[in-house]
Amino acid sequence: MPALALRPSGGTTDPRTVAPPAPVVARLSGEFAGVPVELIGRYVRDVSACAAHLGVEATAAVVERLARERLLALAWSAPLLEPARSRR
Question: Which site in 9, 17, 65, 75 is 20 to 30 Å from 42, CA atoms measured?
Answer without folding.
Answer: 9
